TrEMBL record:
PROSITE patterns: THIOLASE_2 (PS00737)
Occurrences of domain Thiolase N-terminal (ranges): 7-252
Record keyword Acyltransferase present: yes
CDD domains: thiolase
Pfam families for the chain: Thiolase_C, Thiolase_N
Region (Disordered): 197-219
Boundaries of every Thiolase C-terminal domain copy: 259-381
Gene3D superfamilies for this protein: 3.40.47.10
Residue runs in coiled coils: none
Keyword tags: Acyltransferase, Transferase
Protein name, per record: Acetyl-CoA C-acetyltransferase
Family recorded in the similarity comment: Belongs to the thiolase-like superfamily. Thiolase family.
Amino acid sequence: MAVTEAYIVDAVRTPVGTRKGVLADVHPADLGAHALTALVERTGIDPGAVEDVLMGCVSQLGPQAGVIGRTAWLSAGFPEHVPGTTINRACGSSQQALHFAAQAVLSGTQDMVIAAGVENMAIVPIDANAAVLERMGTRREGPGWIERYGEQEISQFRGAQLIAEKWGLRRPQLEEFAVESHRRAARATDEGRFTGQIAPLNGLDRDEGIRPDTNVEKMSTLPPLREGYEITAAVSSQVSVGAAALLVVSEDALRTHGLTPIAKVTTLSVVGEDPVLMLTGPIPATRAVLRRAGLSIDDIDLFECNEAFAPVVLAWAQETGAPLERTNVNGGAIAMGHPLGATGAILATKLIHELHRTGGTRGLQTMCEGGGQSNATIIERV
């Protein structure tokens, strides 16, 4: 089979809602269905021509269980013969969905795949399976893990603090970064930069978590997550609700269905890293994807590095040389929220639309992930 390009025809997302906001009670399958419906309507495709629906979702319990990629598709009223699945690579789940979709097209085995993500953290809280494990009288770590890493705490919060300590990042610097995230997101919202990428839901047409009036003085009054930590809630991503979807197709599909692409996926990487630090993966992932592409940091116009915690992005920028003025230019998860399984697809959507707004050529997206992993993706504007 001839190798083809992996084109993105469109990318759309819901507004990102807050834990107690307008979208808090939306069933996750309906939330995902909304993004899928918007994508089908915007592209004008025959939904029966889709060959697979790959949906990232992290907390696959309760209403997010049962292969939500499939249930979201069926909840949208689309054809039963189209399959769907759910992908969990922690916070990178829907970025991995985009990778799998692109790989299917690049391999020539499929011509039209949807990469998507969904998470309603108001209904299914982060780490909800901890309660299930407790009721079962068991734990996540088995004897092999404990033999290798001991009984030390393994958590994203400790990981973020360890990164702050290792890279010498103190609380005032983290808070300045967080304030800038809100400022950028508020500006982008006011200037209508998100309008073309958001499919309004329940009357909500903008991201709920942005606080335009926040400042370092307010942030400095918050207690740390633990005594002695540099990390506070203000420099962490918000608990959120959201979904997003992208249509990935081959050159043959463009011709057959009369589609016009807006971007293409050119280079992919995924790496493992120290699971105790956990959140440093974007550093080697960025180096790996640039090496594979034969590019340097200077060849990238825009970056999206997920703001799980402020130290993650600041340490990544220090190590890779990525300029912060070209990173998360319209704000990040500290301001807008981080609906776990949806965030990868949301970042890709933001990146593609911003490349078109600015006339940039290449964007690089990366994010930290549970277990000490990271995806990195280079996308080119078409």
